[in-house]
Amino acid sequence: MNLSKTNRWAAGILGFALIWSAAGCGGSQAPGPTTPGAGQLVDPPKAGSAKQEGQSGDTKAPAGSKATVYPFKVKDATGKEFTFNKAPERIVSVSPSETETLFALGLGDRVIGVSDFCDYPAEALTKPKMGSIVKPNEEALIAANADVVLSGVSLKVPVVEQLRGLKVNVFKVEPKTMNDVMDNILMFGRLFDKQEQAEQLVAVMKANRQKVTDAVKDLKPEQKKKVFIEFSPGWTVGKGEFIDELIALAGGVNIAADQQGYNEINEEKVIAANPQVILYPDNLLDDKSKKTLDQVIKERSGWGGIEAVKNNRLIGLDKNLMSRPGPRMAESLVDIAKGIYPELVK
């Protein structure tokens, strides 16, 4: 490639954001957080209260109450402090993960705009479109006159600040772990006065995480399987990102965990690591070859000797579930665990 290292990294991240966020368009939709089946979900335990970071001491609701007391103060991922005098009524989301959270909290009627890639649940497809997840449509956002605009991992800080300069009230989250996602859900519960719904949603996520960790807890280090993930053609992910955490929680060993963040794959390194399981986004086509990613992987020179390829342990995962650090993240964890250890996770 003629691209510099920095440009290659940027191209990979953009590809991750666009390919994965758009992946569900036109396809069948995965079951939501309350849909049983496929061994993905368990009954949630009784929801409890949660302590929120970034809120002032005078915003706590009275004991035994789930109603938010306003004004509510909270800092977003950029460090900006927001004060909400009441629950926002006009909400825009330019992040598929945050859009899923809003609808899961029962806030669909307050959502007045979403990104072009927000496709779950089906109702999100009917909302006015606000442009890209990496650079939303400025005119559309200004015209929406939203009380708050939620943004996620794909919207970088310079763009956030640019929008704020246009008087768009952008609130950014940057979850890196499942705990981050659950904390954000609880925080949104406080912000939008949907605390009970948020706690119930987090309870489901915790129950499914516990189900997985209990299933793999007795694995000895030498029994843990080596895992390679290729989230888009030629790209993998290392430590410091939620996908790496999901692999670890599922009892796997990410062969790229010695690297930070998203990286171009080193084919020789993958061959040498000899992963026992390969994870990839199902039904994702390679733009160059027009082949599915699993076909591309199998046909690479020298990869036929990799244990995962020899034993046909290439596991296709739902493109949206794995790419979105949102309320369905625990479902993705269950799918990953079942893919790595089908004998342990039913």
Automatic annotation (TrEMBL):
SUPFAM superfamilies: Helical backbone' metal receptor. GO terms for biological process: cellular response to iron ion. Residues 1-22 form the signal peptide. InterPro entries: ABC_Transporter_SBP, ABC_transptr_periplasmic_BD, Vit_B12_bind_prot. Residues 28-64 are annotated as: Disordered. Keywords: Signal. Residues 90-344 form the Fe/B12 periplasmic-binding domain. Pfam families: Peripla_BP_2. Belongs to the bacterial solute-binding protein 8 family. This is Cobalamin-binding protein. It comes from Paenibacillus piri.
